[in-house]
Amino acid sequence: MTARGTVAVAGVGTSHFGRQPDRDLLTLAYDAVREAFSDAGSERVDAVWVGTVFAPAGVAQRVLRAMGITGIPIVTVENACASGTTAFVEAHEAVRTGRHGRVLALGLEQMSTAFSGAITPETTDPEGRTGLAMPAMYAMSAARYLHTGAVTPEQLAAVSVKNHAHAVHNPRAQYSGHHTVEQVLASRMIADPLTLLQCCPTSDGAAAAVLTPATGAAGEVVVRGAALRSGTPWNHRSPHVWGHDVVADTTRDALAAADLDAASDADVLEVHDAFTIGEIVTTEALGLVPPGEGGKAAAGGVTALGGAHPVNPSGGLLSRGHPLGATGLAQIAEITWQLRGRCGARQVEGARLGLVETMGGGVSVLDGNACVVTVLESR
Amino acid sequence: MSSPTGADPRPAIRRTAEGDWVVVGRRCRACAEPVAYAWPRCPSCGSAVEPAHFGPRGTVWSSTVVRIAVPGHAPPYSLAYVDLDDGPRVLAHVPGRNADEPTPIGSTARLIGVSDDGDLQVEVTG
Ligand SMILES: [Zn+2]
């Protein structure tokens, strides 16, 4: 493959993730951008794509002018939980096509000052108005999986146990710890069958990546393929639970773009685990494990560090935290660090190929507002 | 918390001459997709739609009990996705079942109107 048209991830950075109500989006964003610029060895960018869901209008220009980034094209995108990776794929496309030379993708969100607990359902949406909070939406999938025997409560809990244990080695994570399956199941019920430790926390944070044309240098991390889709109707005819098909379809697009046969070709993956059932459905939709075996894979260590297909070495959304707009770029940062061999005790040895999947929802009738799948490779 | 304003996005419902509650939705003229909403086109194929009534009977596809505070809804409350017979999948409250266990998946259910707050409601019938 020639370097022409190939895009490199020249630098990545993140703020700390966690409840940080005393900070503001300016300082969180600066933490991420400063690190990404330092990593890239340059502070020059020609355009910026910013992903956020709940930040106020004008937030992109507001945070960027505070660090002297003005006068260039700045675009804000919103795609629910996939907003950060939407910014990334748009920045990638801008560099790949030559529209811009160096592009910054920035994701940010401050949830702790916006909500007292879970995200308030959108009242202009029929199911949001009816009280379908995000945990309840995922609980519907988990309950259905339990009903059909596709997962057990213990397997659901195993995802939380695994990702909290991974996060012990991630100093930027919001939560970490060595929980037991019993502790996860005994934590407070949020929406049956999902308990508190099976739900991502309320988080504040920012993450950034600088994309440039690839130079062909040894060890350079490049984008091997990327794809974005929005969902189609999910209804009584759908063969799968909510969100499965949009992930499967987007994965197919991304693998084709990357000229790969299967997601299992990836050495390490960061996927959307806002709730435990989400990671299980996603590993099945990616084709990483056979249908109905996502729970077994989590409980059996297949998707743990040291397993055949390590998923969410960072701790995932469940443990690193889930500041919506920042999440996708935090996933990109983790995979970039993994491909450079810089992850210390959570490093997947010899990782050369990594995959990032993010999906978000909240619009009734659709199988997700958007899904983004990206394949990164170390050259 | 701010009160919802503007048009109510939830399914419209009405009582038939026989006394049954039905969702007043649309059916696609091209692909026959049932839609619980009075939207101008079919969300599946974009074709023209015509008025259609769905319910009152259906089957519970999945269910949960919400135990966290959600504006406008006092926890715990029981929710179910109900596939209306020859109709769409709708989200409904299951009043009276919110004490301990979610509504059994696969059970039959029937529309019983809307709550004081305008939420679609079903009861389990078998
Ligand atoms: Zn149609």
TrEMBL record, chain A:
<keyword id="KW-0813">Transport</keyword>
<keyword id="KW-0808">Transferase</keyword>
<keyword id="KW-0446">Lipid-binding</keyword>
<dbReference type="InterPro" id="IPR055140">
    <property type="entry name" value="Thiolase_C_2"/>
</dbReference>
<dbReference type="InterPro" id="IPR020616">
    <property type="entry name" value="Thiolase_N"/>
</dbReference>
<dbReference type="Pfam" id="PF00108">
    <property type="entry name" value="Thiolase_N"/>
</dbReference>
<dbReference type="Pfam" id="PF22691">
    <property type="entry name" value="Thiolase_C_1"/>
</dbReference>
<dbReference type="InterPro" id="IPR020613">
    <property type="entry name" value="Thiolase_CS"/>
</dbReference>
<feature type="domain" description="Thiolase N-terminal">
    <location>
        <begin position="24"/>
        <end position="213"/>
    </location>
</feature>
<dbReference type="InterPro" id="IPR002155">
    <property type="entry name" value="Thiolase"/>
</dbReference>
<keyword id="KW-0445">Lipid transport</keyword>
<feature type="domain" description="Thiolase C-terminal">
    <location>
        <begin position="246"/>
        <end position="364"/>
    </location>
</feature>
<dbReference type="InterPro" id="IPR016039">
    <property type="entry name" value="Thiolase-like"/>
</dbReference>
<protein>
    <recommendedName>
        <fullName>propanoyl-CoA C-acyltransferase</fullName>
        <ecNumber>2.3.1.176</ecNumber>
    </recommendedName>
</protein>
TrEMBL record, chain B:
<feature type="domain" description="ChsH2 C-terminal OB-fold">
    <location>
        <begin position="55"/>
        <end position="103"/>
    </location>
</feature>
<dbReference type="InterPro" id="IPR012340">
    <property type="entry name" value="NA-bd_OB-fold"/>
</dbReference>
<protein>
    <submittedName>
        <fullName>OB-fold domain-containing protein</fullName>
    </submittedName>
</protein>
<dbReference type="InterPro" id="IPR052513">
    <property type="entry name" value="Thioester_dehydratase-like"/>
</dbReference>
<dbReference type="InterPro" id="IPR002878">
    <property type="entry name" value="ChsH2_C"/>
</dbReference>
<dbReference type="Pfam" id="PF01796">
    <property type="entry name" value="OB_ChsH2_C"/>
</dbReference>
